[in-house]
């Protein structure tokens, strides 16, 4: 394997790059090409002296663009000038061979002109296609960048950059004045609600006590009766078993008592009463005069 | 800055690495944030996210006094070849024995020299130092001519 093949990765069968027909550019560089060329960092830095060529000419710091020779200029310079020169020759004095040579040159010039025009067309087409491709790729790249930016914006709120920002901008947003006022109002409301519940409970207890006061022993006769009830010996307890069963049957059933108590509790709860006596709500309504008002309204409605 | 909380963090990271947990949450405090940011910069963890007790935030959530109690920092742990990147993480200063370093000590430590009971810095190891209420890696602290308390070392 020769060195020349190594250049192509040791693979044979790869054709070398074809020699271009136009060695210099045939059109002015586009703005995009100029911009791309400007990006290339090349040339000799200002601090260094510019080396000289063998012939004594100084090299340029930055390589300039190649001189543009358009196809028309080329045709004019190479073909038409030669054709003009040939046309001046007096063909009458020439031999057949010389005439044939002139004719051959003309044919060759014509072929060359055709080749130049064709090549120019081909290059134009390549330019057009590559420009189209470039614009397409640029648009694709821009779309990708936009997408990436959007993604980054979305991520930025939960990712590292924001996390780093926390250290400088504070980890927590303090409450605003409005929020503080709202919170204070809520706390006051809670406090009042609790106080109300406590006051209601106290008022209920007081009413309970008031109702219970009805059963208090206030006279001597009541005291005697109570003592009698409490200390009177129940003979039934000391008789034989048979009689005790009878006594038990006679006495009110415990289960029945429980049911009755539950019932009374439920009615109390539903009607808002205490042991069948008016509860706090009823007392409140009477005191405020609402019951009276309702009664009158009902009466008036019935009359109508 | 509580060394006890830092010790808890070290133990938590070790435990998570032992059982190959992918992400874990730590308390949302300045100290924790500084610590994990330091670990992230050194490449010991792969990511830090804000989140709540339920998981990392899907939508950005503002931290206010009302939700601060449920806020957490979610960190992504790193593994390579089925082994955790953090091989060991341990405190240098203990709550009962704090190790304060002068500027020279910090520079010596960054240069790979032993300082008192602190063994020299090994390759792929990082020591973190608290200075001016910030947490710095020892090399960064040496560059800034800082002195401070040696917090923990991780490798």
Automatic annotation (TrEMBL), chain A:
UniProt keyword annotations, A-Z: Coiled coil, Ribonucleoprotein, Ribosomal protein
One Pfam family of this chain: mS26
GO cellular component: ribosome
Coiled coil: 123-156
Protein name: Mitochondrial ribosomal protein of small subunit
Organism this protein belongs to: Spathaspora passalidarum (strain NRRL Y-27907 / 11-Y1)
Lineage: Eukaryota, Fungi, Dikarya, Ascomycota, Saccharomycotina
UniProtKB/TrEMBL annotation, chain B:
Keyword Ribonucleoprotein appears in the UniProt entry: yes
Keyword terms of this UniProt record: Ribonucleoprotein, Ribosomal protein
Stated family: Belongs to the universal ribosomal protein uS8 family.
InterPro entries noted in UniProt: Ribosomal_uS8, Ribosomal_uS8_sf
Record's keyword annotation contains Ribonucleoprotein: yes
Protein name: Ribosomal protein S8
GO cellular component terms, A-Z: mitochondrial small ribosomal subunit
MF-aspect GO terms: structural constituent of ribosome
GO terms (BP aspect): translation
């Amino acid at each position: 394997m020769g060195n020349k093949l190594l250049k192509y990765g040791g693979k044979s069968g790869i054709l070398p790059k074809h020699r271009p027909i136009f060695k210099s550019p045939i059109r002015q560089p586009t703005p995009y090409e100029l911009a791309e060329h400007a990006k290339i960092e090349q040339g000799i830095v200002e601090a260094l002296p510019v080396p000289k060529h063998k012939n004594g000419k100084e090299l340029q710091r930055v390589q300039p663009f190649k001189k543009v020779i358009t196809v028309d200029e080329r045709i004019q310079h190479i073909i038409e000038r030669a054709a003009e020169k040939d046309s001046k020759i007096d063909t009458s004095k020439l031999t057949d061979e010389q005439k044939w040579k002139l004719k051959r040159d003309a044919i060759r010039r014509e072929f060359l002109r055709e080749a130049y025009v064709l090549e120019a067309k081909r290059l134009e087409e390549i330019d057009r296609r590559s420009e189209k491709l470039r614009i397409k790729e640029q648009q694709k790249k821009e779309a990708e960048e936009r997408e990436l930016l959007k993604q980054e914006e979305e991520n930025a709120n939960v990712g590292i950059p924001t996390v780093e920002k926390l250290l400088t901008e504070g980890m927590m947003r303090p409450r605003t004045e409005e929020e503080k006022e709202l919170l204070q109002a809520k706390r006051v409301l809670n406090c009042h609600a609790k106080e109300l519940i406590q006051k209601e409970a106290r008022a209920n207890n007081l009413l309970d006590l008031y109702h219970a006061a009805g059963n208090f022993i206030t006279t001597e006769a009541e005291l005697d009766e109570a003592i009698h009830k409490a200390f009177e010996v129940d003979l039934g307890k000391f008789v034989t078993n048979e009689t005790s069963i009878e006594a038990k049957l006679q006495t009110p059933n415990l289960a029945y008592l429980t049911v009755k108590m539950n019932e009374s509790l439920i009615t109390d709860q539903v009607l808002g009463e205490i042991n069948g006596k008016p509860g706090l709500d009823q007392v409140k309504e009477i005191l405020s005069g609402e019951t009276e008002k309702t009664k009158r309204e009902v009466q008036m409605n019935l009359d109508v | 800055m509580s060394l006890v909380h830092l010790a808890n963090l070290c133990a938590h990271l070790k435990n998570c690495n032992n059982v190959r947990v992918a992400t874990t949450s730590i308390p949302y405090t300045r100290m924790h944030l500084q610590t994990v940011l330091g670990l992230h910069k050194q490449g010991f963890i792969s990511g830090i996210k804000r989140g709540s007790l339920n998981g990392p935030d899907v939508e950005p959530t503002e931290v206010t006094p009302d939700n601060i109690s449920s806020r957490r920092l979610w960190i992504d742990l790193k593994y390579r070849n089925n082994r955790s990147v953090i091989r060991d993480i341990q405190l240098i200063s203990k709550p009962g024995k704090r190790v304060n370093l002068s500027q020279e000590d910090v520079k010596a430590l960054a240069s790979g020299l032993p300082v008192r009971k602190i063994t020299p810095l090994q390759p792929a190891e990082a020591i973190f130092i608290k200075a001016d209420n910030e947490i710095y890696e020892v090399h960064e602290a040496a560059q800034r001519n800082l002195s401070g308390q040696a917090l923990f070392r991780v490798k």
